[in-house]
Write a structure and sequence with these properties.
This protein is mostly helical. The N terminus and C terminus are likely disordered. It starts with 20 loop residues before the first helix and ends in a 17-residue tail after the last helix. Helix 1 runs parallel beside helix 3, helix 1 runs antiparallel to helix 7 and helix 3 packs antiparallel against helix 5. It has 2 domains: 197 residues, Growth Hormone, Chain: A, CATH 1.20.1250.20; 211 residues, Up-down Bundle (Growth Hormone, Chain: A). The protein is built from 17 helices and no strands. Pfam families: MFS_1. Its main location: membrane. Keywords: Membrane, Transmembrane, Transmembrane helix.
């Protein structure tokens, strides 16, 4: 099935009727994993009112618990990409999911505020494996032109998880208690594990994959054999950090990931404090925000694909798409003014911004496989994910913790949210400018040379 490495590479094959069964099945598995990943991390934001009552939390306590998750997630991202590059996607992804499912269930047995910080830290370090493994899986199973779409599809699982959470978690908490919300949602990861081991294998070892689909998957790779079985030496973090492309991705994640953390952990609180929503009343507006996000995630993958089909070079299609997406976030600065007219207008503009973030996410992740060989994809994704988590920590520690506690103490919490919405609105335009400066053409680098052109 695999062509000899000494043969001249064939002309890029076109997809044929019925082809794609296996690669889109794999995309579905990654979508499922990402759904579970975000469901597990979103549970605590919806249980915040119950936990505040039971453990006497204030905004500072909740921010500390959030920081514990982000710090562990950031450190985990730095190392987990290397682990996944070493173990491979099949074992690496499974190990991460198994451990984060145990961590999610473990929240139910915590009895102190410190215990929640520990549980969130364990969840953070284990959940860090999802995106490096998912991006590496996508790079293995999809040609370059389809990766943004595939990434957008699996990344929409983060929205589906965030939709399922408000529709189920408050109901579980109201009926059988908040502990069961952690146990039930955490257990879903074990269902995914069974499907993963049953269905997944890398293309080079997939028993039922046709040669036609294998060739199509690798149609933009010169050496099919080397792309299929990664026998090349691994690349050190230090070497990866010598490339401007790495820093473009790192800064893009550092500036924009914290915005998504803000939506995920503070949206229920915003709706509760600004509009007096309680319990299950929060479910529908939160679900609407993430429904819009799902559309944005898939749409974010479709936009560059459409540009490429019209003849635009892949790097320009990606950059143009990301600029348009960054502009779509900016109206969130008017969320509170619109909310004074009607709460649903605020929900709508926040939903559009969240949708734009997911569209941005689908493209920024794909830039890694655009710029780096497959053997380095998980490592670079991990470095960028760590930067995104560190950005979230900076935002929580320097802005949310201090600012929110202060304005809440003087009864002017709406000012804190006003400042945060301006931060959200400008982050993507700044990130786009820096990424364009550092990687103007997103040309794939040669890891085996140290020439300036490679960097």
């Amino acid at each position: 099935m695999i062509p000899s490495a000494t043969q001249a590479p064939p002309a890029p094959p076109a997809p044929v009727s019925g082809m794609g069964k296996y690669r889109w099945t794999i995309c579905g598995l990654v979508f499922f994993a990402t759904t579970v990943n975000y469901l597990d991390r979103a549970v605590i934001s919806l249980l915040k009112p119950y936990l505040e009552t039971e453990f006497n939390w204030n905004a500072g306590d909740y921010a500390n618990i959030e920081i514990a998750f982000k710090l562990a997630y950031s450190l985990g991202m730095l190392g987990v990409g290397r682990v996944i590059d070493k173990l491979g996607t099949k074992i690496g992804y499974a190990l991460s999911t198994f451990l984060w499912s145990l961590a999610a269930i473990g929240h139910a047995f915590v009895t102190t505020t410190l215990g929640f910080s520990v549980a969130r830290a364990f969840l953070g370090v284990t959940e860090a494996g999802n995106f490096p493994a998912a991006i590496k899986t996508t790079a293995e199973w999809f040609p370059q032109k389809e990766r943004a779409l595939a990434t957008g599809i699996f990344n929409s699982g983060s929205n589906v998880g965030a939709i399922i959470a408000p529709l189920t978690v408050p109901l579980i908490a109201e009926t059988i208690g908040w502990k069961w919300a952690f146990i039930i949602t955490g257990a879903i990861g074990f269902i995914w594990l069974a499907l993963w081991f049953w269905l997944y294998e890398v293309p080079a070892r997939h028993a039922k994959l046709t040669k036609a689909e294998f060739d199509y998957i690798h149609s933009d790779v010169d050496d099919l054999a080397a792309a299929s079985i990664e026998t090349e030496p691994k690349v050190s973090w230090f070497k990866l950090l010598t490339f401007r492309q790495t820093w473009g991705f790192v800064l893009g994640k550092f500036l924009t990931d914290p915005v998504w953390w803000f939506y995920l952990f503070w949206l229920p609180d915003f709706l509760s404090k600004q509009y007096g929503l309680k319990g299950t009343d929060i479910a529908l507006p939160v679900a609407m925000v993430y429904m819009l996000s799902s559309i944005g995630s898939v749409g974010g993958g479709w936009i560059p694909l459409n540009f490429i089909k019209r003849g635009m070079p892949a790097f320009r299609a990606r950059k143009t798409s990301m600029l348009l997406i960054a502009l779509c976030v900016f109206p969130i600065v008017f969320a509170q003014q619109l909310g004074q007219i009607n709460m649903w207008l605020a929900v709508l503009v926040i939903g559009i911004a969240a949708a734009a973030h997911q569209a941005w996410s689908a493209n920024i992740f794909t830039t890694v496989s655009d710029m780096f060989p497959k053997r380095a994809v998980a490592s670079v994704t991990g470095i960028g994910g760590m930067a995104g988590g560190m950005g979230g920590i900076v935002l929580s520690a320097l802005v949310q913790k201090r600012m929110f506690v202060y304005y809440e103490s003087i009864g002017q919490l709406d000012k804190a949210y006003f400042i945060m919405f301006w931060i959200c609105g400008g982050a993507y335009l700044l990130a786009w400018g820096l990424m364009h400066l550092l990687a103007p053409t997103m040309k794939q680098i040669n890891l085996d040379t140290t020439s300036p052109e490679a960097r």
